[in-house]
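Q: What would this chain look like folded?
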Amino acid sequence: MRVEPLLSSLLVPALDKPSILLSIEYSEKDESMILTTTYNGDKYDFMTEGNDLSVKLVRNALSDVSYSWSDEGERKNKMVMHIKAE
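A: My prediction, written as structure tokens:
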């Protein structure tokens, strides 16, 4: 899964001044990946509120996804996506 289309179609248009941090973890044991995205702005779960077609495409590549919000820090939104092994 490419990260640029995810951010450009689901996240960047929703933010006035995007501040985004990506973390990618890879496990050789089971060939899985976890993509953690933290970003600024109001509470925004782009997997439920984003562009329907883009969300469907991203969801097809995932085995699990979770969203959380924190009142602390610059990037209050957090999305954790478990990417299916191919």
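The helical segments are 3-11, 46-49, 52-60.
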